[in-house]
Each structure stands twice: as C-alpha cells, then as structure tokens.
Amino acid sequence: MLTGSCACGAVHFATRTPPRNPSVCHCTQCRKMSGHQWASAQVPEPELTITGPVSWIALTHHAKRGICATCGAFLFWQGNGETEISFALGAVDGPTGLQLEKHIFTADQGDYYSIADGLPQHP
C-alpha cells in the first residue's frame, strides 16, 4: 500500500494499486502551485482513497487540482473526463518504489534550472 498526506496532516490518501506514469510537470500552473515543478503518478480514481478537507479548484477548462483546505498543499490533479487521478509524489509517506519516466510541458520550464537526467522531455 502506498500512503501519503499533506504538510499539516489534515488530508491523507492511499492506494493499493501500483501507480503509473511517474512524471515531472514543468507547466506554469504546476510551477506556481508547487513553487517549482510537480512530480506525480496516477492511479484509477476509484483506487485512490482520499480523506480530509480537499478543495478542488479549476485553473483551466481542462483539469481540476486538489489542495488541502487547511495548509494549501497541492496534492491531486485530474483532467476533465479522465478516469485516472494524479497524486503528488512529494507527499508520499516513505519510499515510493517508483522511477520517473518523463518530463512534460518542458517548454514552460523555469529559466533557473536545467533538465539533465536523460529522461524523455515533452514540450
């Protein structure tokens, strides 16, 4: 089982399903929400148990983001009409057992860092 929580501990999540597609998002919205870049993995929505006060916000017409209503931690992302939900790898309790597969929205990355891990990059 993989478990995680927000910074203040008000929101917890868990899944028994092996997460897929671990990636790093460099889009402007993820950078502004997280303060840098956002690493996540995804599972089918019914396979992720979420407890606690999550506020869902839509910054675009394409997706919603779940944040802790207490501490503001950016924990979840789900595209409209998608059956999978992404969760923040940085919020996982303990080791994830995952390896990143790719970087997405690299055209929006900040000018203060380089991506040099050799993983595929998608603009």
Task: Give structural notes.
The model has no long low-confidence stretch (mean pLDDT 97). A hairpin with a 5-residue loop joins strand 7 and strand 8. The strands form 2 sheets. An 8-stranded mixed β-sheet has the order 6-7-8-9-4-3-10-11. A 3-stranded antiparallel β-sheet has the order 1-2-5, with no helix packed on it. It is mostly beta strands and 123 residues long. It has one domain: Metal Binding Protein, Guanine Nucleotide Exchange Factor, Chain A. It is built from 1 helix and 11 strands. Helices cover 6% and strands 41% of the residues. It holds the Pfam family GFA. Belongs to the Gfa family. One of its GO terms (molecular function) is carbon-sulfur lyase activity.
DSSP summary, beta strand count: 11
Helical percentage: under 10%
**Uncertain segments of ≥5 residues (pLDDT<50)?**
none
Q: Averaged pLDDT, please?
A: 97
Strand order of the largest sheet: 6-7-8-9-4-3-10-11
Biggest sheet layout = 8 strands, mixed
Report the CATH topology name. Metal Binding Protein, Guanine Nucleotide Exchange Factor, Chain A
CATH class: Mainly Beta
Tell me what the CATH architecture is: Beta Complex
β-strand percent reads: 35-45%
Our count of helices gives 1
Overall, the morphology is globular
Amino- and carboxy-terminal Cα gap: 33 Å
**What value does the Rg take, in angstroms?**
14 Å
- The domain tally reads 1
Q: What is the string of SSEs from the N terminus onward? A: EEEHEEEEEEEE
Structural class based on helices, strands and sheet pairing: mainly beta
